[in-house]
Amino acid sequence: MQTPQLETERLILRPLALSDVPAIQRHFDNWNIIRHLSTVVPWPYPVDGAETFVRMQLDKISAGDDIHLWVLALKGGDGEAIGNIHLRPRAEGLKGNRGFWLAEPYWRRGLMTEAIGAVNDFAFLTLGLDHFYVCNAATNEASRRVKQKTGAEFVGFIELAHHGGQTKSEKWIVQREAWLRGRV
């Protein structure tokens, strides 16, 4: 299934495109974002990091991988990517099924909680998932708050190396019934 465009009150979540490379490179090359991510993400972030990432993800999608990737853009804005959410509904692995980042100038506005609500609706109402897992560095309080506000339930800790030196990650489950009961 192709990744559909989703909309919220303040955001457009549209499929990732090669044209998003400049904005992703500019916003993502930020220690305040990277420090909470697993060491699979290169740091220092290379000058072609966003282009390499976008091309690799688009190639995976073209090859039929079950990945949904959205960039977040403000409604009424210039369409610039200010963040990213991925959903890998059937992925097995430590990092879970969904991940996200948001450009630092847009933090503390509830935008990611709003965007995650639309992605959860897609996961449960369109894809018909029963549940999926999400993780965050134990030190990433903002990511934890998004999970709490969007119906995730804490499962426990896992070991996963992050750039900030953190090796403890929180693992959460997002379940269809709980989401539908308390939809954001």
Would you kindly provide a written description of the structure presented here, covering whatever features stand out?
This protein has a domain at 6-129: 3-Layer(aba) Sandwich (Aminopeptidase), CATH 3.40.630. Helix content is 31%, strand content 26%. It has 6 helices and 8 strands. Strands 1-2-3-4-5 form a 5-stranded antiparallel beta sheet, sandwiched between helices. A 3-stranded antiparallel beta sheet has the order 6-8-7. Helix 1 crosses helix 3 (49-62). The two termini are 25 Å apart.
CATH top-level class of the domain at 6-129: Alpha Beta
Low-confidence stretches: none
| Side-by-side strand order of the widest sheet | 1-2-3-4-5
The rounded distance between the terminal residues' Cα atoms is 25 Å
Q: Name the quaternary structure.
A: single chain
Order of helices and strands: EEHHHEEEHEHEEH
Helix vs. strand class: alpha+beta
Give the total of beta strands: 8
The CATH topology assignment of the domain at 6-129 is Aminopeptidase
Helix content: 25-40%
Alpha carbon gyration radius: 15 Å
Described by strand count, sense and barrel closure, the largest sheet is:
5 strands, antiparallel
Beta percentage is 25-35%
For the record, the CATH architecture of the domain at 6-129 stands as 3-Layer(aba) Sandwich
Mean pLDDT: 95
Protein name: Acetyltransferase
GO molecular function, one term: acyltransferase activity, transferring groups other than amino-acyl groups
InterPro entries: Acyl_CoA_acyltransferase (IPR016181), GNAT_dom (IPR000182), N-acetyltransferase (IPR051531)
Domain N-acetyltransferase: 10-152
